[in-house]
Structure prediction request, 341 residues.
Amino acid sequence: MFDNQAMQHTSLIEMTRGGTLENQHFGSVAVVNRRGDVRAYAGDPHWLTFTRSTLKALQALPFMEAGGPQHFGFTTQHVALMCASHSGEDQHVQTAQEMLEKAGQTYQVLRCGCHVPYHFEIAGKAPSPRETFDERYNNCSGKHAGFVAYCVQHGHSLDNYEAPEHPLQQAVRRDVARVVGMDANDLKLGVDGCSAPNYAMPLSRLALGYARLASGAADTEFGASFAQLSEAMTRHPDLVSGTGRNDLAFMQAGQGDWVTKVGADGVQVVGSKSRGEAFALKIIDANKPALFAASVEVMEQLGWLNNTQREALRPWRAQAIINARGIQVGERRAAFTLQTP
Prediction:
């Protein structure tokens, strides 16, 4: 059945081959300030979308607000890993292990499941048959280690900490709703790849969450927590993602100003500390090169990029398509212009 809702999106990225249009990647963008005002948009800025891993920094709020890092002696590296979709490199696994040890637990309590670490996919390699992995290698192990620590601190059960009715997840839902200016009952519940609850919300609300996160101590409600979270993410982008990953490249290019997070299935959010603004972007077909190219184009149109940043992000933006012989066979190009309300 034809979905009229899809017509609310706009073409963000086009791909041509031999000068002929081959692919179009539709989606929407919302640019929002920390008061929740939509400053610019493309497509439908209020499109309802699952937040996926962009939510992780906000899911850490109950732990941060309760003084969890101080209680357990967590460093900024540990706080960064709570916000991460990491690649399962040695530094990520070791940091997750440290968090669990500080909470007096082992990796067996983690309820995120196990998968082959992302760094193999990024490097184009496969693990050897002799290699084995456990829950610490899951890209969400930092978030789950934070969940475990919260439960230990508050005396909650570890057996079902990922269940929506668990006190931890109820606290997460409460704080997420407060940050994005919604009633908690209006957050649409789903289950993420790591088995934790995830929420769908309008793009504009997700952007608001990151505008507030990037504002750090200036936020009147969560300032202390946002200051710690945003500082940890921008100081340790290698822990938030990993070698060759988008979040690492974007936050390095941002030189401490941009707080960025990619989520599965075509979601990206970027907040600017200096501007008190953020944008949330959804590519409806979840194409990653289109997502990254569109994000760079948004920053270009917003005037966020200087020449050094523009060059650093060049591999991630719209560009020529080169085949295996080094011949240019097509082009990936931006197809949208941000509108103002």
